[in-house]
Specification:
Distance between the termini: 16 Å
CATH architecture: Up-down Bundle
Largest sheet: none
CATH topology: Growth Hormone, Chain: A
Number of strands: 0
Shape: globular
Number of helices: 17
Strand content: under 5%
Structural class: mainly alpha
CATH superfamily: MFS general substrate transporter like domains
Number of domains: 1
Order of helices and strands: HHHHHHHHHHHHHHHHH
Length: 402
């Protein structure tokens, strides 16, 4: 591991890795669990809407707690509420589809609190010199979790009768959340100066300095794609194969590819290459969807999944690193890091909600497989919108290499 990532950055990576592993174990099959109870795209769409609204509001409302009080308690509460969510899913069993709104809100609150605190600590423990490397390791650990978690879950669910496998998977996930919570107590608390400015995100978008307005637009385009793709791909794999083990196998293969690519991108995608990397990554993310126009089956979905894993680091690393570099551009912006992270999440939330509302609207009219494919292609071009917004900023704000 990079020498610059020792100490607190490494511990933060461990907490993140465990949180992501737990989510990969249970979350990969969560939408399949809902689908098996009621085969309804729209219901899953509303579950996602509830999550995103709660996640965005948790960032905005939780910002005051994180800035003025104890951000580590917010991180731990996020882990605890994630555990509570899966306890309720276990208790409700097949009745879970009757409570998609409250459950979606609960999961959104859990994710919002965890990722708000994580992003603040991430900013505080990294700098422009090691940020790409840290993001590369985040992607690499996420890929490792994606290899181990879904494969193990798929095997357990397929080898056990009824919903017993799901119960075992959710219980294992709860235990991992517990380990992550314990590790979080070793992270050092840092005081963030100043009072929380509730309207700072709004002021940044309307300031004379256009950088955050441009960045916000790029983040909205990012959210347009990921809001739908985050739940639809896994669901389509299950629908095409009718086997949880196939979904586990799909995630294992694509995550293995992603692991190598995130490592390579974190090592070699230097700041001066961000614009070109983001352009080609965005273009190729569109290209890999085209096999689905021929036929939607496990094979074509796997081609798309492998292609996405190959090229998404080229898109995601510049998106993440450039937004955090913008936060650290000056002493004043660094002092507003909580508000700027809230702004970043609200822009992503806007894009995710817009994409999901488009999904719900289109599939309310027609849920034919061809419609789903064309919708994916339409939303899949959104990363090119991010690049168009940020291309000048990526060329201008080149961070000196260390």
């Amino acid at each position: 591991m990079n020498e610059s990532l020792r100490g607190q950055p490494r511990l933060l990576l461990a907490v993140n890795g465990l949180f992501v592993l737990s989510g990969a174990l249970a979350g990969t099959f969560l939408n399949v669990y809902l689908w098996k109870s009621r085969q309804d795209y729209i219901m899953i769409g509303w579950f996602t809407v509830a999550q995103q609204i709660a996640l965005g509001l948790s960032f905005w409302l939780g910002g005051k707690w994180v800035k003025e009080f104890n951000k580590m308690n917010a991180l731990r509460l996020g882990i605890a509420v994630s555990g509570l969510f899966y306890l309720l899913v276990l208790w409700l069993e097949s009745r879970v589809v009757d409570y998609v709104w409250p459950l979606g809100v609960l999961l959104g609150v859990a994710l919002g609190l965890f990722w708000l605190a994580f992003n603040i600590v991430f900013f505080e423990t990294t700098d422009p010199g090691n940020r790409n490397a840290f993001n590369g390791w985040v992607g690499l650990l996420g890929s490792l979790a994606g290899i181990v978690g879904p494969w193990l879950s798929g095997w357990l669910i397929s080898s056990m009768n009824g919903n017993r496998g799901y119960r075992v998977v959710f219980i294992i996930s709860l235990c991992i959340y517990g380990v992550a919570a314990v590790l979080s107590f070793f992270l050092k608390k840092r005081k963030t100066p100043g009072e929380y400015q509730w309207l700072e995100p709004w002021h940044e978008l309307h300031s004379e300095d256009r950088d955050w307005r441009v960045m916000g637009a790029g983040l909205v385009f990012q959210g347009l794609r990921e809001g739908v793709f985050s739940f639809l791909i896994g669901l389509l794999v299950y629908i095409a194969s009718k086997e949880e083990s196939k979904l586990g196998q799909f995630t294992l293969i694509t995550s293995a590819v992603s692991l190598v690519c995130y490592w390579a991108a974190g090592k070699w995608l230097k700041p001066k290459y961000r614009s070109a990397g983001m352009f080609w990554g965005s273009l190729l993310l569109v290209a890999v969807i085209f096999p689905l126009l021929w036929k939607v089956n496990y094979g074509t979905l796997l081609i798309m999944g492998i292609g996405t894993s190959l090229f998404i680091p080229l898109y995601m690393l510049p998106m993440v690193s450039s937004s955090f570099d913008l936060m650290g551009e000056s002493k004043e912006s660094a002092g507003m890091r909580v508000e700027l992270i809230v702004l970043r999440e609200l822009c992503l939330m806007t894009g995710r909600l817009a994409g999901t509302f488009i999904f719900i609207g289109v599939l309310s009219a027609s849920a034919a497989p061809r419609t789903v494919t064309l919708l994916m292609l339409g939303l899949g071009v959104a990363p090119l919108g991010s690049w168009l917004c940020l291309r000048r900023m990526l060329r201008k704000n080149i961070v000196p290499e260390r």
